[in-house]
């Protein structure tokens, strides 16, 4: 069998499959340049009016700012919790580890609608106890997003820890390092890529979360995905296509940055 032909055909199939899956995303690009007031393909007249409306509309800018704040806070808190829990499980080496991991990963197994209902009742009760931290508040949305995002961060960190040799921890402890010194000077530097992946994944999941957000927000908090959903449901605003194109470009830049960091790390490892 010609391995070169096999590899070439496999790559061709992969490219065709990727093009098929990405085609619906690519069609939104020309739609965003339409000169009409509704979603449609340009009929020879290309316009930037929807990009201008997007960048000059205070409602859209407010939603972008709220989403950035919520996603940043969620990413930071979820990463701290995921790293702490995963390292604790890695150090513990107990039979309870499987049970604890199962409890933490439980939100991944529950349908989003059920999670949204539970978080709605939690947020309304929390708002009575601590006003400003419950329903339809930025801190309340952050808390709900952290609950939904932490399991994915834990999975990412457990995968990263599975690739770490336990002998480096034993060597550190045998040389007299304390648990804190081992954690911050030995373990965390070896988990840089896993931590970065957790931060990126947590940010992305919080940024695009809409199902839970619809249940726990009303007037004061209107994140970008919620506004996009409202725009598609109510008036089919072409600005939705414009923001979609900007988000696609941002995603590509982030992925290219991550690939560049991985390539740089591999080059340093070889040298």
TrEMBL record:
Where is each ABC transmembrane type-1 domain found? 64-258
Would the keyword Magnesium be found if you checked this record's keyword annotation? Answer: no
Q: Which InterPro entries match?
A: MetI-like (IPR000515), MetI-like_sf (IPR035906)
Subcellular localization is given as: Cell inner membrane; Cell membrane
Keywords noted in UniProt: Cell inner membrane, Cell membrane, Membrane, Transmembrane, Transmembrane helix, Transport
Name of a matching Pfam family: BPD_transp_1
- Iron-sulfur is among the record's keywords: no
The regions listed as transmembrane in this protein's record are 12-33, 68-92, 99-122, 142-161, 182-205, 240-261
Q: How does it sit in the membrane?
A: Multi-pass membrane protein
The record's family statement is: Belongs to the binding-protein-dependent transport system permease family.
- PANTHER family, A to Z: INNER MEMBRANE ABC TRANSPORTER PERMEASE PROTEIN YDCV
Q: What is this protein called?
A: ABC transporter permease
Species the sequence originates in: Pseudomonas protegens
């Amino acid at each position: 069998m010609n391995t070169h032909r096999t590899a070439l055909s496999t790559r061709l199939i992969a490219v065709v499959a990727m093009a098929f899956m990405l085609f619906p995303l690519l069609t939104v690009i020309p739609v965003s340049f339409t000169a009409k007031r509704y979603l449609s393909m340009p009929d020879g007249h290309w316009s930037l009016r929807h990009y201008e409306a997007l960048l000059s509309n205070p409602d859209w800018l407010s939603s972008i700012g709220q989403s950035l704040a919520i996603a940043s806070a969620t990413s930071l808190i979820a990463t701290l919790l995921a790293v702490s829990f995963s390292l604790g499980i890695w150090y513990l080496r107990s039979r309870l580890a499987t049970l604890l991991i199962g409890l933490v990963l439980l939100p991944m197994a529950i349908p989003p609608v059920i999670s949204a209902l539970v978080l709605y009742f939690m947020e309304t009760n929390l708002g009575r106890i601590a006003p400003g931290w419950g329903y339809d508040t930025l801190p309340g949305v952050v808390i709900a997003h952290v609950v939904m995002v932490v399991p994915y961060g834990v999975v990412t960190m457990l995968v990263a820890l599975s690739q770490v040799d336990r002998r480096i921890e034993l060597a550190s402890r045998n040389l007299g390092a304390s648990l804190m010194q081992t954690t911050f000077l030995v373990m965390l530097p070896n988990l840089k890529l896993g931590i970065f992946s957790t931060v990126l994944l947590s940010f992305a999941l919080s940024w695009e979360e809409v199902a839970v957000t619809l249940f726990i927000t009303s007037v004061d908090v209107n994140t970008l995905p919620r506004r996009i959903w409202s725009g598609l449901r109510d008036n089919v605003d072409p600005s939705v296509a414009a923001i979609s194109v900007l988000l696609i470009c941002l995603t590509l830049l982030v992925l290219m940055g991550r690939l560049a960091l991985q390539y740089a790390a591999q080059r340093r490892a070889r040298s």
